[in-house]
């Protein structure tokens, strides 16, 4: 069974063709970036074949057509009929969607309605859905929601200490994001510890970062909230701050909520505290030259992440494993080292050599907590969900 995975952003389209067998191998993948702009970047690969070029691609339908024509050119498949199902990433499923769901007209309408809660993401995801449903008409289209995995959060975790009618009338609650990868990483972690029970903390540290607490395969806490702005500091997002600060600063700077939203989402986080870059690779380069701001940024990041891990160990009353994933989690060994240095009291002990080489398992023999480094793979998890949905 071949499953096409579509992840549409406002001006991008990522695609993966995955063979659903024991390994869920990727046959073909790529990205179209800059849809609607004068020049759009297209890159795709299948095994040893790859192609990269620039051209104008006006919309998501044309982007998908481009992806399909290269797929044929590479000879991975010869006809669209060889695509058995399409899985779509949908960022926000609200409280309605707790699992993979077939895209029918009413479901698409619901996703359009939920778009109010995720104005940057759901409308973009929908562009990918509209385009693919028009082009691939013979196969089922399945939505996979970023929020779904976190719908198991208990009420004490998902409700804010705010007026109840805000929750009832305006749907203000913690939703959590990156759920597809947290679920994938939890599954991989349980496989590695050899049982389906245990208290694990998954640290998805990328451009956007979130941390989840998963007890016996059920997500009980997560750091992103009503929006992906809550939690630890990220590339350009502030993460959690005193909610009075934006109110105070809107008054002081005489700016409106839109401008404040831009500052908190685009001009804060690692970019703001380092005054250098939002990319941890740049920060590390400067930190090695003893740049004070770069050193402070790494110190601050490690501190904030360690605080969350400590809190989540409390939420679960214990900790069996920590797993690091995504760009920073998989590569920034110096951050993993600094994070773990706060967690000795929980029985966390790193093997510095294994950590330094980004090995898959990096705890010391004496460590009470297992520590893993696992590559993020949302596409694979999405394909699994589509496969399970169609074979249930
Ligand atoms: P996204 O959240 O967009 O999916 P990624 O998971 O790919 O992003 O993470 C991207 C971030 O990971 C980069 O901005 C950078 O900060 C960090 N990163 C990527 N590679 C490395 C590396 N080798 N060392 C340290 N940080 C890295």
Could you characterize the architecture of this molecule?
With 392 residues, the chain is an alpha/beta fold. It has 2 domains: 2-145, Nucleotidyltransferase, domain 5 (2-Layer Sandwich); 195-373, ATPase, nucleotide binding domain (Nucleotidyltransferase, domain 5). 40% of the residues lie in helices and 20% in strands. The chain has 15 helices and 13 strands. It has helices at residues 60-73, 105-114, 122-135, 155-158, 164-170, 179-193, 244-253, 257-266, 269-274, 280-288, 292-316, 326-331, 333-340, 352-356, 378-390, and strands at residues 2-8, 12-19, 25-33, 40-46, 49-55, 85-90, 101-102, 141-145, 199-205, 209-215, 218-222, 321-325, 370-373. It has an 8-stranded mixed beta sheet, sandwiched between helices. It has a 5-stranded mixed beta sheet with strand order 11-10-9-12-13, with helices on both faces. Strand 9 (199-205) and strand 10 form a beta hairpin. Helix 1 (60-73) packs across helix 3, helix 6 packs across helix 15 and helix 10 crosses helix 11. The chain is globular, with a radius of gyration of 21 Å. 43% of the residues are buried. The mean pLDDT is 97. The structure holds adenosine-5'-diphosphate (ADP). Residues 206-208, 235, 279-281, 284, 326-328, 331-332, 376 line the site of adenosine-5'-diphosphate (ADP). Adenosine-5'-diphosphate (ADP) binds at residues 206-208, 235, 279-281, 284, 326-328, 331-332, 376.
The CATH superfamily of the largest domain bears the name ATPase, nucleotide binding domain
- CATH fold assignment of the largest domain: Nucleotidyltransferase, domain 5
Number of domains: 2
Q: What's the number of extended β-strand segments?
A: 13
Strand-pairing-aware structural class: alpha/beta
What share of the residues lie within helices?
25-40%
Mean pLDDT: 97
Write out the distinct hetero groups bound to the structure. adenosine-5'-diphosphate
Largest sheet: 8 strands, mixed
């Amino acid at each position: 069974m071949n499953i096409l995975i579509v992840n549409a952003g406002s001006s991008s389209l990522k695609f993966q063709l995955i063979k659903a067998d024991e390994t869920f191998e990727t046959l073909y993948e790529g990205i179209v970036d800059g849809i609607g702009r004068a020049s759009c970047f297209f890159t795709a690969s299948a095994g040893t074949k790859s192609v990269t070029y620039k051209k104008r691609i006006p919309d998501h339908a044309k982007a998908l057509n481009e992806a399909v024509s290269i797929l044929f050119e590479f000879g991975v498949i010869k006809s669209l009929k060889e695509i058995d199902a399409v899985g779509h990433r949908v960022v926000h499923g609200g409280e309605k969607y707790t699992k993979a769901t077939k895209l029918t007209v009413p479901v698409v309408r619901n996703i359009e309605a939920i778009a109010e809660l995720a104005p940057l993401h759901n409308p973009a995801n929908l562009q990918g859905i509209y385009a693919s449903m028009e082009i691939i008409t013979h196969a089922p289209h399945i939505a996979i929601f970023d929020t779904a995995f976190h719908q198991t959060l208990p009420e004490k975790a998902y409700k804010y200490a705010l007026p109840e009618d805000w929750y009832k009338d305006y749907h203000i609650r913690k939703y959590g994001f990156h759920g597809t990868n947290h679920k994938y990483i939890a599954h991989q972690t349980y496989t590695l510890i050899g049982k389906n029970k245990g208290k694990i903390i998954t640290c998805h540290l990328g451009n956007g970062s979130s941390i989840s607490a998963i007890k016996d395969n059920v997500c009980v806490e997560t750091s992103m909230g009503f929006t992906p702005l809550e939690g630890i500091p990220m590339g350009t997002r502030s993460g959690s701050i005193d909610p009075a600060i934006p109110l105070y600063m809107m008054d002081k700077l005489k700016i409106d909520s839109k401008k404040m939203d831009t500052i908190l989402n685009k001009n804060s986080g690692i970019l703001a505290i380092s005054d250098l870059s939002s990319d941890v690779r740049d920060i590390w380069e400067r930190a090695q030259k003893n740049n004070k701001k770069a050193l402070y940024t790494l110190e601050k990041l490690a501190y904030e992440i360690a605080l969350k891990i400590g809190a989540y160990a409390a939420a679960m009353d214990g900790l069996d494993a920590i797993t690091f994933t995504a760009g920073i989690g998989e590569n920034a060994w110096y951050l993993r080292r600094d994070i773990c240095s706060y967690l000795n009291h929980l029985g966390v002990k790193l093997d510095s050599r294994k950590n330094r080489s980004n090995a898959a398992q990096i705890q010391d023999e004496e460590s009470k907590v297992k520590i893993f480094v696992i590559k993020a793979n949302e596409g694979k998890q999405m394909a699994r969900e589509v496969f399970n949905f169609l074979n249930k």
